[in-house]
Write a structure and sequence with these properties.
Blueprint (H helix, E strand, L loop, with lengths): L6 H28 L2 H24 L3 H30 L12 E8 L2 E9 L2 E2 L5 H7 L4 H5 L4 H14 L5 H9 L2 H4 L9 H24 L9 H21 L5 H24 L14 H36 L1
Antiparallel strand pairs: 1-2, 2-3
Length: 330
C-alpha cells in the first residue's frame, strides 16, 4: 500500500525555505551598502548573537513546528552575522583581495596606524573597486574575499563531521550512509544526542552551508578544477539530482516541523546547483544587486510574507482542530 503524499505541505515548506536564500543574500548586500563600516560590524555581531539567542529560545518552547521555525530563523541570523560577516570583516581588515574570472591585476593597499589597518584601497586593473557597479563586479570578479579564505576552515569542518560520523546516531541520510557502508555502525556503539528540533535544524543549516560552500570553493579554484570544469558541472548536476531524491522522500512527510527540516536540507543542496549555474552565466542573480532589481526583490519578499502568514493561519487552524478532536475523545 502506497503511503499518503502531502504535495501542498511540501511545496509550502520548500518555498518558505527557498525564498530565504535570495532574501538573506539581499539583506547582506543592503547592510553593506547602507551602513557605515563600524555600524555594520556591530550590527552583524548583534545579528549573530540574536540568532544564537533565538535558537536557544527554541529549545524551551513547546511544539515541534515552533522549535523548527525558531531554529531556522536563528541559524540564518547566526550564519549571516557570525560566519559570513565575520569572515568579511577579517578579509577586509587584512586586505584580502578578490579573484578575477579572467586576466588582470588586483591591487590592495592598507594604511596602518599603531599596528592597526585603518583604511584600504582596492583596485582592479587600476580602477578603484567602488567605481564598479555590482553587476560589473559580478562579470569580472570570481569570489568575494571572505569566501576565498573560507577553505582554510576545511579541517575544522572535518573535525565537526568526525564527531557526528563516529559518535552519534543521527537522522541525516548522508551520515547514516557513511556509517552503514564503512563498517562504523557494525563496530562502533553510536548513541543519540538529546533531541531538540531547534538545535537539530540550527546544526543542519550551519554544517550543510559550511560543507557545500567548501565544496564549491574548491571546485571554483582554477588551481584545482575551475568554474567551468566538467567535474564542477557534474557536482552541480548531482546536487540537482539529490535535491529531487530528497523531494521524493519529503512528499510523504505529514508533520510540518519535519517537512520544514527536510525542506531545509533540500534547498541547501539545490542551491549548490543554482550557484554553479549562476557562476557559469546561465542566469543573472538579481539578489546580488537588489538596488537595481527592487520590484523583483519586493515581489519575493511579499510572497515570502504571504507564505509565512498562510503557514501560521494553517497551523492555528490545524492545532485548534486537533485540540477539538482530543476533547471529544476524552
Amino acid at each position: 500500500m502506497k503511503s499518503r503524499m502531502y504535495p501542498g505541505k511540501t511545496l509550502g515548506a520548500l518555498l518558505i525555505v527557498l525564498l530565504l536564500m535570495p532574501l538573506g543574500h539581499a539583506l547582506m548586500i543592503l547592510m553593506e551598502h547602507f551602513l557605515e563600516p563600524t555600524t555594520l560590524h556591530y550590527s552583524a555581531f548583534f545579528m549573530g548573537l540574536v540568532g544564537l539567542a533565538i535558537t536557544i529560545w527554541g529549545i524551551f518552547v513547546k511544539g515541534d513546528t515552533k522549535q523548527t521555525c525558531l531554529g531556522i530563523t536563528g541559524a540564518m541570523l547566526f550564519w549571516t552575522g557570525w560566519v559570513e560577516f565575520l569572515l568579511a570583516y577579517y578579509a577586509q581588515r587584512y586586505g584580502v583581495h578578490c579573484d578575477l574570472v579572467g586576466n588582470g591585476v588586483v591591487e590592495t593597499v592598507s594604511r596602518y596606524v599603531n599596528g592597526v589597518a585603518v583604511d584600504h584601497s582596492f583596485t582592479i586593473n587600476g580602477t578603484p573597486l567602488e567605481d564598479f557597479s555590482r553587476g560589473e563586479l559580478k562579470e569580472i570578479r570570481g569570489s568575494r574575499p571572505e569566501y576565498l579564505i573560507m577553505p582554510a576552515t576545511f579541517g575544522m569542518w572535518i573535525m565537526t563531521i568526525f564527531m557526528y560520523v563516529f559518535c552519534t546516531r543521527t537522522g541525516c541520510d548522508f551520515i547514516r550512509w557513511i556509517q552503514n557502508h564503512c563498517g562504523i555502525k557494525q563496530n562502533v556503539e553510536l548513541r543519540p544526542m538529546a533531541y531538540h528540533p531547534s538545535v537539530v535544524v540550527f546544526m543542519e543549516w550551519n554544517i550543510m552551508m559550511w560543507g557545500l560552500y567548501l565544496l564549491l570553493m574548491f571546485c571554483y579554484d582554477p588551481v584545482f578544477l575551475g568554474s567551468d570544469h566538467p567535474v564542477t558541472y557534474g557536482i552541480g548536476a548531482a546536487c540537482l539530482i539529490f535535491s529531487g531524491m530528497i523531494l521524493k522522500k519529503q512528499l510523504h512527510i505529514a508533520s510540518w516541523g519535519r517537512n520544514l527540516r527536510m525542506a531545509l536540507a533540500n534547498v541547501i543542496v539545490f542551491w549548490s546547483f543554482v550557484e554553479v549555474a549562476a557562476r557559469n552565466g546561465f542566469f543573472k542573480e538579481i539578489w546580488v544587486d537588489p538596488m537595481h532589481h527592487v520590484v523583483e526583490m519586493v515581489g519575493i519578499l511579499a510572497l515570502f510574507v504571504a507564505l509565512i502568514a498562510g503557514f501560521w493561519l494553517y497551523n492555528v487552524k490545524d492545532s485548534n482542530a486537533s485540540d477539538s478532536d482530543n476533547s471529544e475523545t476524552e
